[in-house]
Amino acid sequence: MISWLSPSELETALRDIGGRRYHSLHPFHGMLHGGKLNRDQVRAWALNRYYYQAMIPVKDAMILTRMNDASLRRIWRQRIVDHDGTSEGDGGLERWLQLTDSLGFPRDYVISNAGLLPATRFAVEAYVNFVRDRPLLEAIASSLTELFSPNIISERVAGMLKSYDFVSRETLAYFDGRLSQASRDADFALEYVKHNATTPQLQQSVLDALTFKCDVLWSLLDAIHHAYVSPGLPPPGAWIPGAELRS
């Protein structure tokens, strides 16, 4: 158990976790951003990452239902709007589907999750269950990986545009919005955590929550790397490059 930390010390400890454990450090990301993957390996990443993107508004809705303060709900519900949009064809999830469209996946197949890696499903559902089952403070703290996402987004877009002729600025449009949205969301969540984690026990719990979320993101890349890069053995039921797609 840690000793009590001042709010600024708690922020430093949270940022230290990201500096050591955020998935920007995973070898797969270096390959993705550096042009070391082939088209099918990039497709595998986009396909599996869709499930994570699709479940983000679900976990945010769970958090929303647990907030008794209307002012908090007004702030948090913007996250759902960002992903789901305000009408058909709008929002971050639609923009991710535009990416998978451009990579040759039928939308029905992507949305069906038929080709998911089992580990992708398990990791994402573990995150949703964490948000559902843990105290509100920990659920909010688990979102603090957004503190570190603007840097990785900038690297990802620049690296992919430089390295792959099968993506474009338009097909990577999802990330344009997230640059400002992630910073806004992280600032709010960080201030909430610093204000409400008032004991060593609570502070330890928020540090553990962020660690857990970093582990979720890391495990997603472990699964994709193992299945499609090295040794390159997709498990039964997962998408296989070149195979017929069945949703």
UniProtKB/TrEMBL annotation:
Q: Which reaction does it catalyse?
A: 6-(2-amino-2-carboxyethyl)-7,8-dioxo-1,2,3,4,7,8-hexahydroquinoline-2,4-dicarboxylate + 3 O2 = pyrroloquinoline quinone + 2 H2O2 + 2 H2O + H(+)
- Identify the metabolic or biological route this protein is part of: Cofactor biosynthesis; pyrroloquinoline quinone biosynthesis
Any one Pfam family match given in the protein's UniProt record, by short name = TENA_THI-4
- InterPro entries from the xrefs? Haem_Oase-like_multi-hlx, PqqC, PqqC-like, Thiaminase-2/PQQC
Q: List the EC numbers from the record.
A: 1.3.3.11
In the UniProt record, does the keyword tRNA processing occur? no
Domain Thiaminase-2/PQQC residues, every copy: 13-222
Give yes or no: UniProt keyword Oxidoreductase. yes
Mind listing the UniProt keywords for this protein, alphabetically?
Oxidoreductase, PQQ biosynthesis
Role played: Ring cyclization and eight-electron oxidation of 3a-(2-amino-2-carboxyethyl)-4,5-dioxo-4,5,6,7,8,9-hexahydroquinoline-7,9-dicarboxylic-acid to PQQ.
The record's similarity note reads: Belongs to the PqqC family.
Query: What HAMAP family would the database entry show?
Result: PQQ_syn_PqqC
Identify this protein by name: Pyrroloquinoline-quinone synthase
The species this protein belongs to is: Labrys miyagiensis
Taxonomic classification: Bacteria, Pseudomonadati, Pseudomonadota, Alphaproteobacteria, Hyphomicrobiales
Gene name?
Answer: pqqC
